[in-house]
Amino acid sequence: MTTITYVEAHGQAVTVDVADGWSLMQGAVANGVEGILGECGGSCACATCHCYVDEARIGELPPPADNELDMLEDAAAPRRSNSRLACQVKVHSAMAGLIVHLPDRQQ
Amino acid sequence: MTSPDKVVIVGAGQAGLQTAEALRAMGYAGSITLLGAERCGPYHRPPLSKAWLAGEMAAEQLTMRSPDALERKGIALRTDVQAIGIDIGRRFVRLADGGALSYDALVLATGASPRMLDIPGRDATGVLALRSMEDAQAIAQRLALCAQSNRPMVIVGGGFIGLEVAATARKKGVAVTVLEVAPRLLGRVLAPMLSEWYAQLHRWHGVNLVLNARIAAFETGADGQVCGVQMNDGTLLPAGLVIVGVGVQANDGLARAAGLACDRGIVVDACAWTSNPYIFAAGDCTARSTSEGTLLRLESVQNAVEQGKSAAAAVMGQERPFAAAPWFWSDQYDIKLQIAGLSTGADRWETRGEPDSGSFSVYHYCGDRLLAVDSINDAREHLQARKRLDGEGT
């Protein structure tokens, strides 16, 4: 289990334990975090799990694949340098304490 | 209709959940009861043929919403409950457990069921279809047995489900035969050159692909277990597992019995209205009437989501037509196929990008009109196609 803090669009922070190997999307929806949809179930096909990873730590994550970069173009909220699709980021112990900000819309 | 305060949604899949959440997002403050026939709450079905079947994810990772997330939104989920009738006059739904639920607005999101083949041996143990988590668990079990005992499997139907399961089974080292009745794979959606491309892809991965296949029977052993597939030409293909993936039929029985207009699905307009002013429908169970006067059946995540939103709006007395271009995807091996639009009626195809590079798109045209785009590992082109096709109507 790795501790992840999701900050919902209206500022509410929710800290949860996510099983290693789960995606940031799965960790959010299984714990009832508001603001991530994940319509396609994690197939990188819908861009409804857009999130902003803490800028100070974005470099610690494996970089996005081309497919994720392309799909981010379809995200509803503005894309930033720290934008990721939460379904494509797998949680592991080195990510403990990571802060993930959620946009105000996914559709 | 005055603003309702009791909404009942039959079906706790993607369309049902989307309807419930969209109602709350629109400010609906009354009660929402979400009835699910399965034992678990809403979950993602698409990975069942792919990452889940490959053993790459746990069942809990398919969860769409946690129970407390639903509770916070005031969505009362009831699982393992079957709706068996609708009294449209007095506006209540009868349940298999003897109970009844009255409604001001009813949303049918009953999904679809796999079609089975009416041939001898169809009831043999080990002849399976894939739709639910329970189906997937049964398939995973037998697939593991096949892998252990080095027995082959046969997949009937070279559509998305069949080909995705074939790819997963090959990953697990199981020998796979895919039987397709048509002369090419995915013939109703893909351009001819892509059908051939997919045939080569699967053959390269070791799939025994048979086109124009004619099946006579499923062979059953003395123990009642399937042991092979008998072809019309006399060939017997041994099999420890047979998957039938020959399409689905809409679950419109409830609607039909209640006298709603149905035609291979519950007939709805672009705003998810059925022929009854208090009943709406969304997702795989629907047949949507188009501006061209045809009925369109779509079985996809996007359709469930969009019609769910339309149904919620309709319950609130608003019109929110589903006008976006349809899109679909399929993951096989390391290939992501994304389709925008509907290719029916195409008479001309153009390829953009280099097929040998593993990333390219095929454009379907009827004359000069763009109908659809199939993209292989080419999400950028897919999204552009969606934007281009959006709003052109279906």
Features:
heterodimer, A: five-stranded mixed beta sheet, 2 helices, 13% helix, B: 394 residues, alpha/beta, five-stranded parallel beta sheet
Summed up:
The complex is a heterodimer of chains A (107) and B (394). Chain A is an alpha+beta fold and 107 residues long. Chain A is built from two helices and five strands, in the order ββαβαββ.
Description:
The complex is a heterodimer of chains A (about 110) and B (about 400). Chain A is of the alpha+beta class and about 110 residues long. Chain A is about 15% helix and about 20% strand. Chain A contains 2 helices and 5 strands, in the order ββαβαββ. Chain A has helices at about 25-30, 65-70; strands at about 1-5, 15-20, 50-55, 85, 100. Chain A starts with a strand and ends in a 6-residue tail after the last strand. Chain B has 8 helices and 26 strands. In chain B, strands 3-2-1-7-19 form a 5-stranded parallel sheet. Chain B has a 5-stranded parallel sheet with strand order 9-16-10-11-12, covered by helices on one side. A 5-stranded antiparallel sheet of chain B has the order 22-23-26-25-24. Classes of the chains: A alpha+beta (about 110), B alpha/beta (about 400).
- CATH superfamily membership of chain A, which one? Beta-grasp domain
Uncertain regions spanning at least 5 consecutive residues of chain A: none
Oligomeric composition of the shown chains: heterodimer
Spatial strand sequence of the major β-sheet of chain B = 3-2-1-7-19
- The arrangement of helices and strands of chain A along the chain is EEHEHEE
CATH architecture of chain A: Roll
The percent of residues in helical segments of chain A reads 10-25%
- Rg on CA atoms of chain A, Å: 12 Å
Number of helices of chain B: 8
Overall pLDDT level of chain B: 95
Domain module tally of chain A = 1
Reported for the largest beta sheet of chain A, the result is: 5 strands, mixed
Give the uncertain stretches of chain B in residue-range form: none
The coarse overall form of chain B would be: globular
